[in-house]
Write a structure and sequence with these properties.
Number of helices: 2
Largest sheet: 2 strands, antiparallel
Order of helices and strands: HEEH
Distance between the termini: 82 Å
Number of strands: 2
Shape: elongated
Strand content: 5-15%
Radius of gyration: 27 Å
Strand order of the largest sheet: 1-2
Length: 87
């Protein structure tokens, strides 16, 4: 009973591995996997968070654009808490 099931499983896995191989020099015809991220809902909102789906390459481009458009963070400033502005 176990032997035929094991043989069938082995043949199925070999067939899947053979069909998954792409010859060198040819691009894969499979579409890229989409990665979905949910944006936080606004505080006090009853609506669900909005989901945004892109490929890994598209997410990398979005992150690059966000870094380029983000304002530079100023260095921390020394806080003076003592009398007459003394540290």
């Amino acid at each position: 009973m176990r032997l035929p099931a094991l043989a069938a499983l082995l043949l199925a896995s070999m067939a899947a591995a053979a069909s998954a191989q792409v010859p060198e020099g040819q691009p894969s015809t499979a579409p890229e996997k989409k990665l979905c991220r949910s944006q936080e809902a606004k505080t006090g909102s009853f609506m669900r968070p909005k989901r945004e789906c892109h490929t890994a390459a598209e997410w990398a481009e979005i992150a690059k654009a966000n870094r380029a458009n983000a304002p530079a963070v100023p260095p921390p400033q020394l806080q003076l808490n003592g009398p007459n502005g003394q540290p």
